[in-house]
Amino acid sequence: MFAQPSETRPLLRDIARDRLRSEIMRGSLCPGERLDDQELAARLGCSRTPVREALADLAHLGLVELRANRYTRVAVPAREDVVPALQALGLLFGGVVRVTVPRLGDRSRSAVFRRLGLLLDCLEAPSWQPSADAATPIYRTFIEECRNPMLTAALRGALDGLTFRLRHRELEAALPWQDIRTGIVALRVAVDLRDGRLAERATWSAHLLPDPDHAGPEDVGPAHV
C-alpha cells in the first residue's frame, strides 16, 4: 500500500497556470502578446516543462493560442464568439441560479440584489462603456453559494475563459443591451422574491437564451444579433 503524503503541495504546473491566468485576466498580459516559455520560466522561477503544461491548460480554457512551430500568444477575442460565450454562461449558471436563489442567506441575497442594481445603474449611465467583467462579481457570488463541489470547480474553471471571450473591442455593438437589461431587471425581482424558477428564466433571458420553459434542444444555439 502506498504511503500518503503528510500534506498536499501545489504542483508547479498549477502555480504557473494560476499566475499566468491571473495576469491575463487583469490585463498584465494583453491579447495578442507573444509568450515565450523560456522567458516565462525565468520570470516564474521554474523550469520550462511546467510552463509549457500551464500554457496548454490555458489554451484549453481559451486564454492562450498555441500554434506549433509558429507562436504562442495570449488569445485575441473574436466578435463571432461574443454571443456564444454569453449564452454558454447563461447555460452554466441558469440551473445554479434556480437552485441557489431560494436558499440564499439574507446577507448574500442583499449582496446579489445590490450588485444587480449597480450593474443596471452602469447600463443606464451615458458614459458607461460595456465591460466583459461587469457581471463577474455576480457570477462569483453564485459560485460561492453553490453547495455542489464538482459544479463549483467546473464553474470556476469555465468563468475566466468565457468572460475573456467577451472582451472584444466592439462589445457595445455586438450585443443587444436593452434585451440584456430587461433580463437583469427580471433577475433582480426574482432574487428579491426568492423565486428560483423565475431567476432561471431571467438568467436565460439576460444571456440571450430562449425561455427554458418553452425551449427545445434545437432552440439553444447561437443567436443572431
From TrEMBL:
Q: Which domain of life is it from?
A: Bacteria
Residue stretches making up the HTH gntR-type domain: 10-77
Which key words tag this protein in UniProt?
DNA-binding, Transcription, Transcription regulation
InterPro entries to which the protein is assigned, alphabetical: Tscrpt_reg_HTH_GntR (IPR000524), WH-like_DNA-bd_sf (IPR036388), WH_DNA-bd_sf (IPR036390)
Claim: Cell membrane is one of the keywords in the record: no
Answer whether the UniProt record assigns the keyword Ribosomal protein to this protein: no
Do you know which Pfam families this protein is assigned to?
A: GntR
Name of the protein in its database record: DNA-binding GntR family transcriptional regulator
